[in-house]
Amino acid sequence: MGKPKTVYFERKFIPLLLLILLFYWAAVVQYGLFFNVVSSSMPRGIYKRVDEIPKTGSFAATCLTEELARYGLERGYLIKGRCPTGIQPVLKKVYAGVMDTVAIKNCRVTVNGHELNGFDILETDSQGRAVAVFYKGKVFLKKDEFWLMSGHKKNSWDSRYWGPVTTEYTFEPVWTFNE
Predict the structure, then answer these.
(1) Closest CA to 144 of 168, 116, 163, 114
(2) CB count, 10 Å around CB of 68?
(3) For a pLDDT cut of 90, what percent of the chain falls above it?
(4) 3-state class of 148 per DSSP?
(5) From CA 113, how far away is CA 35, in angstroms rounded?
(6) CATH of domain 35-176
(7) 91 vs 153, more confident
(8) How far apart are CA 38 and CA 173, in angstroms?
């Protein structure tokens, strides 16, 4: 009768599996790489964690509060992941940091008195549902507070709706592709 095909299949692909695990270890563990294939707030691609304090123009990840995580998960804005709240870290660009003043007035965002064009606060999401705004007003950002938004997706759910946040890590693109 011979050996079952499943044994042959398993033996044949063990070296390939080991190669994939080695690549994963080298990329993720050694070099701090991660792959953005889910979030539409950033271009799809490969990113690298960097050991820097976030600054305006850099990219950062945050784990949202329990209330925000629950709302985002219920709405389908977020997916399950490794944050303490059970969601995936949210990836965004830093638009303001320590000692910056951010204000929301008339559905517009200003940083240090300069209006950010294209970052209006929308009343409804892409499915036509009303969007809750958890933050309103003006804030002077303190140490470890950042204003994160998506320059890639203009109707992103970000600091326009949840206010300033702390960050988990800073990252930079290694390779991205246009969609």
Answers:
(1) 168
(2) 24
(3) 65
(4) strand
(5) 36
(6) 2.10.109
(7) 91
(8) 15
pLDDT digits (tens, 9 = 90+) for 37-60: 777 888 889 899 999 999 999 999
Domain boundaries, the chain: 1-30, 35-176
Average pLDDT over residues 130-138: 93
* Helix (H), strand (E) at residue 20: helix 5-24
Give residue 111's pLDDT band: very low, low, confident or very high (50, 70, 90).
Answer: very high
Distances (CA, A) of 77 to 11, 58, 74, 81, 159: 41, 22, 8, 13, 14
Amino acid identity of residue 106, one-letter, is N
Buried/exposed code over 34-51 (b: 16+ C-beta within 10 A; e: otherwise): bebeebebbbbeebebee
Q: What is the mean pLDDT of residues 72-94?
A: 94
Structure tokens at 32: 């701090």
Residue 23, token pair as written in the block: 């690549």
Tokens (6 digits) for 108? 């517009």
User: Environment class of residue 16 by beta-carbon count within 10 Å: exposed (0-12), middle (13-18) or buried (19+)?
Assistant: exposed
Q: Which of 99, 106, 102, 139 is nearest to 120 (CA)?
A: 106
